[in-house]
Amino acid sequence: MTASGTTNDVAVHYGTDGLLDRILEALTRAGKHIDKLSINDLGLVDEFHSRRRLATEELARMLAPVATDHVIDIGSGIGGPARYLAATYGCRVSGVDLTPEFVGTATGLTGLVNLTNRVDFRQGSALALPFPDARFDLAWSQNVAMNIQDRPRYYAEMRRVLKPGGRLAIQDVAQGPGGPVVFPVMWADRPEISFLRTPEETRAMLEAAGFSVAQWIDNSEAALIEAQAERAAMRSASGPPVLGIHVIVGPSAREKMRNGQRNQEEKRTLLINAVLERVD
What we know:
By secondary structure, the protein is α/β, with parallel strands linked by helices. Helix content is about 40%, strand content about 20%. It has helices at about 5-15, 20-30, 40, 50-65, 80-90, 100-110, 150-160, 200-210, 220-235, 245-250, 255-265, and strands at about 70-75, 90-95, 120-125, 135-140, 160-175, 210-220, 270-280. The two termini are about 30 Å apart.
């Protein structure tokens, strides 16, 4: 959802025309009233990361924002986590994403749930965030780092836009001990735009960038159990559900989910949740 050394390739991977219209059509077919939408109505389609809404809820509890906080969501996708944080905790959230179609869709959906007074989005790179130094109280990033080749610069930008003592919440797909990732997966159709690091490498680079670890959790087993249940439900159904990430990903979603589960089962990938604090 954001930038690497091959920003155009990453943007092309995620970009898709007519995304907002497809989502609204799916919502209508699911019986939702477009003029009376809530963030819960969008939850099955706008949480474009591992473990979906559950992951957002858990990471949000770890970060524990308050109403006076201004949060930056780096790699904000179509805005599900940003809207959840604002609606649940009353904070203000500014999202940044590389993909113009995601930014437009995020803005449109945010207007439909009446959160434009607290949530905004703009197009930009995680390697050159379009904000001044020390602008934000908190930072947030879910399933973004796997597309980032220049991790030191990515972490340095996170630290730059945080106020001293500000906290960062991340959910990262990490390289596991089981071998190279089997492609395609949700974040990459091919290895050229996938840049996984091990949990140990990730933690070391974050600390080198000026962060201290407050919480560090391996959620790999929970993610695997949920992925297995999700795939089992899809196999038993007569067809894909009306609402789901396939609305965003398209026909390749089933293969990518299957590969994702295999990567988890064979420990080719791991899933990390963490909260860190900017130190000076």
